[in-house]
Specification:
There is one protein chain. The protein is of the alpha/beta class. It has one domain: NAD(P)-binding Rossmann-like Domain (Rossmann fold). The protein contains 8 helices and 8 strands. An 8-stranded mixed beta sheet has the order 1-4-3-2-5-6-7-8, sandwiched between helices. Helix 2 links the parallel strand 3 and strand 4. Helix 1 crosses helix 8. The chain is globular. About 5% of the residues have low confidence. It binds nicotinamide-adenine-dinucleotide. The site of nicotinamide-adenine-dinucleotide has 27 residues, from helix 1 and helix 6.
Length: about 260
């Protein structure tokens, strides 16, 4: 694990950690949480030099979220540099296309280790520390409408996000008495990040996608960040174990067509 602090705006606010913090949604969340008064520490796979260019003045550590020991060491380092993290944003994610029929053990393992296992243990490690220190906190998972509606063309991702939802509910149950509220923001289709990359590869896909969304508008990373801020807000004292679904009505339309619709 390569650790580096690129500095941080001094503040007395809570310390927030964001995994996948150099991605499109992660960066928007970092900016929004800092504006909400937090000291923000990011982690991602890129070297510190890249982080310094993309997110100057944010505390950054290179961490593979699928590596339990690296995550543990990161949280300890953030605590030493800033304070005990009490706003935990589990955001790192990968999508590897593959239908149920085409999913290999390697694809499955990689997808679940990042999207599900990595996020779960980041939340669990941070929650245990908060509970030990008797500090209230907020944990927000960046889930997806794919955790609700089957996405057969990305089966492993859809399964991972469904599992993440149940992890969120179990953690919410276990930590509610400690004042640690655990929720999920479930975006629909964001015109950036993972789906932005896919849309950029296929001509006309962006417009076709927009037409499919009942509200005829794609999300921005800032929309997702706003949802995270509202769940972290100290005025939120009651919402836990819940899903903030920001999908423009997509879920109302039901499952996507089978990826094998034209197969034999
Ligand atoms: N873009 C969308 O339409 C959309 C929709 C629903 C949910 N989401 C979710 O939003 C989150 C952020 O995705 P995004 O769209 O900003 O994509 P992104 O690719 O811009 O960001 C994801 C970040 O996660 C990092 N990452 C991947 N594997 C990692 C690992 N092993 N360890 C540490 N970091 C790792 C990547 O390097 C990247 O910076 C993901 O959880 C994704 O599932 C995105």
């Amino acid at each position: 694990m390569e650790a580096s602090a690129t500095g941080n705006t001094p503040s007395q606010g809570p310390t927030a950690v964001i995994s996948g913090g150099l991605g499109d949604i992660g960066r928007a969340i970092a900016i929004a949480l800092r504006a909400a008064g937090a000291r923000v520490a990011l982690s991602d796979l890129a070297p510190a030099k890249t982080a310094a260019q993309r997110m100057p003045s944010f505390h950054y550590t290179r961490v593979d979220i699928a590596d339990y020991q690296q995550v543990k060491t990161w949280l300890q380092a953030v605590e030493r540099s800033l304070s005990v993290p009490t706003w935990i944003i589990c955001n790192a994610g990968v999508v590897i296309p593959g239908s149920s029929r085409a999913t290999s053990p390697a694809l499955w393992e990689k997808t679940l280790s990042v999207n599900l296992t990595g996020s779960f243990f980041l939340a669990q490690l941070a929650a245990e520390r908060m509970a030990k220190k008797k500090l209230p906190g907020r944990i927000v998972f960046i889930g997806s409408w794919a955790g609700e509606v089957p996405h057969p063309q990305i089966t492993a991702y859809s399964v991972a996000k469904a599992g993440l939802r149940m992890a969120m509910k179990c953690l919410a149950t276990d930590y509610a008495a400690y004042g640690i509220l655990v929720n999920e923001v479930a975006p629909g289709i964001v015109d950036a990040g993972l789906s932005g990359k896919m849309m950029a590869r296929t001509p006309h896909l962006r417009e076709k996608t927009r037409q499919r969304i009942p509200v005829r508008r794609m999300l921005t990373p800032e929309d997702v960040a706003q949802g995270v801020v509202s769940l972290c807000d100290s005025r939120n004292l009651h919402m836990t174990g819940s899903v903030l679904l920001l999908d423009g009505g997509l879920t109302l339309k039901g499952p996507l067509p089978s990826s094998n619709a034209d197969a034999d």
